[in-house]
Task: structure prediction
Amino acid sequence: MKCKKVKRLLSLYAGNDLSLSMASAVKSHLSSCPECRREYKVYIQSLQEIKGWLKSERIDWDEAEWQQSVKRAAAGKITQKKKLAPWPFKPAWALGFMMVISIVISIFWLRPSLFRERSGLQPDAALIKQTSPQEVVEMTLVSRETGFKIKWFLNKNFNLEEESE
Amino acid sequence: MKDEAALVDKALGGDESAFEELLHPYRKGMLNIAYQMTGNTEEARDICQTAMIKVFKHLKRFRPGKNLKNWLYKIVKNVANDFYRKKKRDERLKEEHKKRGVSAGYSPEKDFLNREIKEKIEACLKYLSPREKMVFLLRDAEGFSIKETARVMGSSSQSVRTHLCRARRKLRLEFEKIYPKGRWSNEV
Ligand SMILES: [Zn+2]
Result:
């Protein structure tokens, strides 16, 4: 083994973190190379000293404080895996679904002439006036997540009149 | 060691003392890892508190047969990382305040057992990245094996060796700055 490679491995060798074969290769190099041996000694010394410093700076819990910390932690809620309901039964989905349905129903309820127009019948102006006294229908869509509002104003022929936020 | 699985069950049932018994063997190790990661006793206790809350919260996820010690230290490591990131952010804010001439209300660090030793530790650990520091503390201060360290770090043994190698080299260089070479050249 060459000095360059040994020097790279010295820090691990100093902490007993090399495989047996690697360690013995380093060991045999050290026995014949004073330069690497010197560096190895510095590693051993620095590691020993720093470990000693860390040991002497070791702190501990104050018993009352420890007990209090445990108490606080144990007062927390335990998360359990929630069972996911199939989508129509999730409250958010169900609400959204109901909103869409009610909007659709209200559109057709307010503008029954739409059926006739779609089915190719000529709209009877008098009838429209009679069945829906409103000239303009206002529709508001509210996003449940962002609160973003869209208002649609539709005239009696179901054309978009105005759009606003 | 008592049966961990039984203690976990008891703790899940709301037995506080079982939860304490579960954590007891690691309490000092947890605290000191957090202490050396931050250099501050107050923050170390906060980190442990947050970690313990998380441990209790996710105790259900802990499967008997898994290593409680590794799992626990992993949570401490993650919380310490979060603290570190937040601290860095706060320090940047403080710097900006300073530049704008706002006093930051900084109070000097008082909690240390031995000022001289604490300063030496800080001088040596200063240039280690959080990852290098954590690997070094687990292996050399807490006596974890390379494999255990890898599990806590969520990485491979090879990656742990690489970080350990870098950490010890940096430490050696700083150590040499503190002690001029002559001090031990004739010893050992
Ligand atoms: Zn050599």
Observations:
- DSSP finds ten helices and no strands in chain B.
- Residues 68-99 of chain B form the longest helix (32 residues).
- The two ends of chain B are 39 Å apart (CA to CA).
- Residues A 3, 6, 29, 33, 35-36 surround zinc ion (CB under 6 Å).
